[in-house]
Design brief:
There is one protein chain. This protein is mainly alpha-helical. The chain has 3 helices and no strands. The N and C termini lie far apart (about 55 Å).
Length: about 120
């Protein structure tokens, strides 16, 4: 039996779980089967993290780099005219703590120079 949820938010899309796809025969019943011989033991979570960060440095990182952009056209966000958006909370900007103000000012100047941020 396949269960389904109906929502007005989904108009052209259909969400189907992998359980239901197996029932429908779209996915093999061995879809999530794992060969125990292929599973390797890890000494610790830290060693696995270090190994993954070393193997995939362009994908995994502890910081966001502002020097590398995302390839593609500039993003354009368009809201549907019939939907009204109301903020659920309004906040104001807080002052930068004094002990990191110089570093923050340098970062903002660099981002402004690169065009990532702009002054209003």
């Amino acid at each position: 039996m396949v269960e389904a949820l109906v929502s007005k938010d989904l108009t052209d899309e259909v969400l189907v779980s992998w359980h239901d796809l197996i029932c429908l025969g779209v996915l093999s019943s061995m879809f999530l089967a794992v060969d125990a011989a292929q599973v390797r033991k890890v000494e610790s979570e830290d060693s696995l993290r270090e190994e993954l960060f070393g193997d995939f440095p362009k994908v995994l990182s502890n910081y966001l780099s502002y020097d590398i952009g995302v390839n593609g056209d500039p993003m354009s966000i368009c809201f549907k005219e019939w939907v009204s958006f109301l903020p659920f909370r309004v906040t104001r900007c807080h002052q930068v703590p004094l002990h990191i103000k110089d570093e923050a000012d340098a970062l903002l100047a660099d981002l402004d120079l690169k065009g990532v941020l702009g002054r209003l």
